[in-house]
Amino acid sequence: MTLIKHLSLLLLLFLFCLNANSQPSATGKISVDKKLTNKLVQALTGFHGEVGVYVRNLKTGKVALVNADTLFPTASMVKVPILCGVFDKINKGELTFNQELIYRDSLKYDDGVVGSFRDSTKIALPKVVHLMISISDNTGSLWLQALAGGGEAINSWLDTNGFSQTRVNSRTPGRKAFQARYGWGQTTPREMAELVTMIYNKKAIEPEASERMYRYLGMQFWDGEAISQIPPYIKTAVKNGAVNQARSEVLVVNAPHGDYAFCITTKNQQDQSWQKDNEGYALIRKVSAIIWNHFEPKSDWKPTGNVGRYWF
């Protein structure tokens, strides 16, 4: 490594650690894992766009942060707040978990599974929730957003629970300017990771609701990025997202030596392709592997390296 590159990395590490200590924390007083942070800084160097990462070891409480409190588009990660909004309504008795819903053509947003239903199709609410989380069905998600009381109600729940930067923008009064900039939703890597961690800790809504939401997050169809770098026998709770200029993923990993949560988000990517080698997708895989190997250095499992063969 050249002297100039070495000094640049040290400067970046210093700035990121400074940022970590100056930003409000969802977890109270924090201890920074400088070794992991340094690995992440090196991995992100040269990325053609903006990127943020937040990692917390749920056993030790140590964190690694790179632009962890910067706002990014949620893309489909917004479906985690929608999930919380739906279960909040169920908990209040304003929705019934197993209630039957009737699909109408006016609900159609795209040609996903729910958008392909015939008018008057009957479907139970938990099946729509499953489609929203597992395959990221957009029509079903917007339907559930409305059932949860809309973006205003979901944002109110987020605010009440300490997530001041995470917001639903789409179809939410007063948020057109934010939608133009960030799309469907906006968040920070720290807040999104801590939201999934709250679900994991059984503190979102109430314990039974949290457990049910955590099970849904463990049923992920889109597993070609961060999950692909974690052994298939390890439990993960995940939601990912993608739009042209942004890629993102949030996980809680039930690892052998201690569970951990992390979120990686990008924006303003130069690479807007939708192939498996998109720079954002590749970075998510790279970061996920770094974090897994950092916490599980003696693991004898390694990915095949041929992610693309079965990549959707």
What descriptive keywords fit this protein?
312 residues, alpha+beta, Beta-lactamase, six-stranded mixed β-sheet, three-stranded antiparallel β-sheet, 11 strands, 39% helix, 17% strand, disordered N terminus
Q: How many separate helices?
A: 10
Strand content: 15-25%
CATH topology assignment: Beta-lactamase
Q: What is the overall shape?
A: globular
Task: Tally the beta strands.
Answer: 11
**Low-pLDDT sequence parts:** 3-12, 14-27
Portion of residues within helices: 25-40%
CATH architecture: 3-Layer(aba) Sandwich
Kindly provide the name of the CATH class: Alpha Beta
Largest sheet: 6 strands, mixed
The Rg value, from CA coordinates, equals 19 Å
What is the terminal separation in angstroms? 37 Å
What is the chain-wise order of helices and strands?
HEHEEEHEEHHHEHEHHEEEH
Number of domains: 1
Mean pLDDT: 92
Looking at CATH, the homologous superfamily is DD-peptidase/beta-lactamase superfamily
- Broad structural category: alpha+beta
What does this protein look like?
There is one protein chain. With 312 residues, the chain is of the alpha+beta class. The protein has one domain: Beta-lactamase (3-Layer(aba) Sandwich). 39% of the residues lie in helices and 17% in strands. The protein contains 10 helices and 11 strands. Strands 1-3-2-11-10-9 form a 6-stranded mixed β-sheet, sandwiched between helices. Helix 3 crosses helix 6 and helix 4 crosses helix 5. The chain starts with a helix and ends in a 17-residue tail after the last helix. The N terminus is likely disordered.
